[in-house]
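Subject: mismatched residue count in predicted assembly?

I count 412 residues in my input, but I want to confirm that the predicted structure covers every chain. Input:
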Amino acid sequence: MARPSKNILSPSIIAEAALTMVERDHDFTIPGIAKELGVNPSSLYHHVRGGRDEIINLMREALYGRIDLGAATAEGTPWQGRLRAWIRSYRANMAKLPAAMPLLVGSPVDDLPTLRIYEVAFAILDEIGIPAEDQVDVVSMLDAVVLGSALDRGAPVPMWQPGDHAVPHLQRAVPFGDDDDRSARGLELAITGAVAAIESLIAEAA
Amino acid sequence: MARPSKNILSPSIIAEAALTMVERDHDFTIPGIAKELGVNPSSLYHHVRGGRDEIINLMREALYGRIDLGAATAEGTPWQGRLRAWIRSYRANMAKLPAAMPLLVGSPVDDLPTLRIYEVAFAILDEIGIPAEDQVDVVSMLDAVVLGSALDRGAPVPMWQPGDHAVPHLQRAVPFGDDDDRSARGLELAITGAVAAIESLIAEAA
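Triage response: the counts match. Full output below for your records.
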């Protein structure tokens, strides 16, 4: 019987195994990944000498590397349309793995695929005249909208099941919109709000 | 040697043990909670017959029950101030346990403490004339902002550590604001945006 090749391990294979494990268990361990891949934990350490922190970074590189920024960087599209596309693409990608978000957010952003996603947002803010001292605040607002809406995308449909509880305002509202498109409509409204907040910063800076 | 009393178990003790376990491991199991509490898993089931789903609901009841809505319901405060207080209180509470968010969001809202938090938001929207058919969208926008900013609160400081990577716009911006207050300033800007989005719905409905 052939033994598994020693060459099956690579950082990207390890990242994918970690993502699979996080999706199932909401966290990962190095022995758990080793078991998933049928290898010895010490072979894992050979490929990811930075241990847990490095694996979190590899997971983020893999996830953020899949974000399609075509529409967010399309020449000729007004900035509002590019920003909307940036938010939608980033959110659609993160919504695939909500359980990974607390892990990824808890670790510093120092890998190029993730830095590049943010670079596109900072470039738009430079272009439209947002002062450098406001840009981090704006991107933090955008991150909140993206991550929150990606989490919200994982809510059940219907989300509110009030039964007979005495919550009359909620009881009246939920039949109108607690459906499959609820989270997407909330995102669009949040984007409208984010664009308005940015426009007010532009007006202040002018 | 005294044996542990059979009365030590209650739904709220079980919820707190589950929250502790989620904070540490990003998830919980019923055998894990039983071990944490030094009891037999079958004794747990006696108190939470609904199993995992019921424990998730108990966790949410405990977390949402701690949200202070005083400022969000204060008479005489304009709606923008009450909504701002609602978002801030809800977000401050969720930021204490970011790892629980994917679990809580993935389960329907049917417990009174959580329904009451949303009821306060729906009541404000009724009061200011947001049509019933838009209210779920607005609350989904608010939820995205709250949950995303609560997650973002758990990011390290500094969050972006670009090193020598070629991301010039990001490199220029981050020295101005990647500090302890970054996430809070992003939240305030997101609230400004949410209020603007709501005001545009009021104008449309008028």
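Chain A touches chain B through 79 residues (CB under 8 Å). Marking this ticket as 'not a bug'.
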